[in-house]
Amino acid sequence: MNQNEYTTIRLPKELVDEIDDIVKDRSKGYTSRAEFVKEAIRIWLMKIKQGRGR
Hints:
The protein is mainly α. The chain has a domain at 18-49. Helices cover 54% and strands 0% of the residues.
């Protein structure tokens, strides 16, 4: 994927607030909301591809 190609998604505020709480806790290792969301999606996609998703 080209680093300059992005899209916008909408998330419920409740989820965003939870993500922000995790990002604020620097001990979790995330520096931004975007970094957290990208990693979470990558992990979930990997699980689905391996047959371990829903």
